[in-house]
């Protein structure tokens, strides 16, 4: 039963990541935490998310905003050490509880048409927040999704820029996690077994991306965030 659950989680999350530019870590991590220990769930997510980013980077390179990408990368450098310190020192349930509240509150703000103007300082701040969430819980997506949705960024530009950023943040975060939290065979065997499922999800996600218009895309982002926020909240209180 756990194997079937694992397959469904990876497939759905891969499709979502490929079609929207978000979704794998946001959707997969909460469910993987139900099947694996925190270190295992986070590192499996990082490995598979990195594979997805590598597989897609050439296809979306023309959609990347390199100015924003540079600032996100610079900002993330401050968040990475903070995130791993939080992961090592803080109770995982308290961490999930805090993240769930942030996600839910900010998503409600977006649904209520809250908008924020984009500037260089905010790019750096969002990059730092995303970096800290990646090394702490393996989820860089919420800050980026909330930020870019709030600025009405077009879906192609959003997907391209975030996937390029993920290529950096997942690689560095995986190294940081392995060095400071350790690793084990379960992580790498499970990741290897999931690769064919990820490839299938990539194919299906590319097809879905062509069919999604901007309004449907916005609804997708709200559903993803609300679902993740509630799931993390429930997990943290169990």
Automatic annotation (TrEMBL):
Instruction: Give a yes or no for keyword S-adenosyl-L-methionine in this entry.
Output: no
Q: Where in the cell is it found?
A: Cell membrane
The lineage's top-level taxon is Bacteria
Task: Tell me the keywords, alphabetical order.
Answer: Cell membrane, Membrane, Transmembrane, Transmembrane helix, Transport
Q: How does it sit in the membrane?
A: Multi-pass membrane protein
Question: Which segments cross the bilayer?
Answer: 7-36, 42-60, 72-89, 95-112, 163-181, 187-209, 216-234
Q: Does the keyword Nucleus apply?
A: no
Q: Which family does it belong to?
A: Belongs to the 4-toluene sulfonate uptake permease (TSUP) (TC 2.A.102) family.
Alphabetized PANTHER family for the sequence = MEMBRANE TRANSPORTER PROTEIN (PTHR30269:SF37), TRANSMEMBRANE PROTEIN YFCA (PTHR30269)
Official protein name in the record: Probable membrane transporter protein
Protein species of origin: Ornithinibacillus salinisoli
Its lineage reads: Bacteria, Bacillati, Bacillota, Bacilli, Bacillales
């Amino acid at each position: 039963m756990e194997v079937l659950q694992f397959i469904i989680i990876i497939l759905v999350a891969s499709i979502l990541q490929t079609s929207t530019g978000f979704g794998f870590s946001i959707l997969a991590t909460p469910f993987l935490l139900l099947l694996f220990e925190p270190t295992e769930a986070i590192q499996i997510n990082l490995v598979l998310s990195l594979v997805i980013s590598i597989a897609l980077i050439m296809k979306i390179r023309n959609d990347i905003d390199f100015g924003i990408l540079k600032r996100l990368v610079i900002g993330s450098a401050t968040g990475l050490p903070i995130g791993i310190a939080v992961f090592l020192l803080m109770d995982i349930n308290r961490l999930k509880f805090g993240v769930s509240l942030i996600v839910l509150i900010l998503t409600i703000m977006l649904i209520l048409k809250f908008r924020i103007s984009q500037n260089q300082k905010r790019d750096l701040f969002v990059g730092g927040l995303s970096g800290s969430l990646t090394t702490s819980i393996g989820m860089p997506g919420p800050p980026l999704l909330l930020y870019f949705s709030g600025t009405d960024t077009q879906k192609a530009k959003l997907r391209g820029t975030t996937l390029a950023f993920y290529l950096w943040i997942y690689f560095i975060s995986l190294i940081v996690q392995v060095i400071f939290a350790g690793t084990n065979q379960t992580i790498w065997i499970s990741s290897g077994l999931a690769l064919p499922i990820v490839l299938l999800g990539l194919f299906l996600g590319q097809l879905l991306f062509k069919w999604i218009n901007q309004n449907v895309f916005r609804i997708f982002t709200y559903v993803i965030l609300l679902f993740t926020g509630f799931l993390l909240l429930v997990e943290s209180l169990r």
